[in-house]
Design brief:
The chain is an all-alpha fold. It contains six helices and two strands. Strand 1 and strand 2 form a beta hairpin. Helix 1 packs antiparallel against helix 2 and helix 3 crosses helix 4.
């Protein structure tokens, strides 16, 4: 849930900065780009910290070398966070990030079905997790195309 809270909080902060007269944030799209980038940086940070073993356990057993997959997806999230902030690359980054989120969804399904935990906290059940994933994908695509 933390990534969702970050997404909402940073978006609202951007909107407040826009209302305060900071030109970069006068429209919703830049607020959303920054919010998506912040969310991605938060999720990427788990790929190397204390939560790394939890993420490795989430990778379905059909995939080889889950530790490498976790590392690669973390780097892709960081690259996407940067790419979505750059107007020239934001559309391509948003599409690539949406595809990445779809590709990583089987790990979320496994985590929910096997009642795994991340950082000692149980992951959300499958329905809320699916809804969250749809929200993240929609926000990411809107950020890139807004």
């Amino acid at each position: 849930m933390v990534p969702f809270y970050v997404l909402v909080a940073v978006f609202l902060l951007g909107q407040l900065l826009g209302l305060a007269g900071i030109p970069y944030f006068t429209g919703w799209s830049n607020s959303l780009r920054v919010a998506v980038a912040a969310m991605l940086l938060v999720t990427a940070s788990a790929h190397w910290g204390k939560r790394r073993p939890d993420l490795i356990r989430m990778v379905p057993p059909a995939f080889p070398k889950p530790d490498r997959i976790v590392t690669i997806t973390g780097w892709l999230e960081i690259a996407g966070a940067i790419g979505i902030l750059i107007p020239f690359t934001s559309r391509a980054a948003s599409v690539c990030l949406a595809l990445l989120m779809v590709a990583m969804f089987p790990a979320n399904v496994r985590a929910a079905k096997e009642k795994l935990s991340i950082g000692g906290r149980p992951v959300p059940k499958l329905l809320p997790r699916t809804v969250l994933q749809i929200v993240f994908i929609a926000a990411t695509l809107l950020a890139g195309w807004g």
